[in-house]
Amino acid sequence: MKKIMGLMVALAFCAAGVSAQGKGAKMVKKIPMERDGIVRLSIIEVHPQYLEEYKKIATEVGETSLRTEPGVLTMYAVARKDNPYLITILETYASQKAYQSHIASPHFQKYKEASLPMVKSLELLDQVPLNAASKIINVIE
Question: In the chain, which residues have pLDDT < 70?
Answer without folding.
Answer: 1-25, 134-141
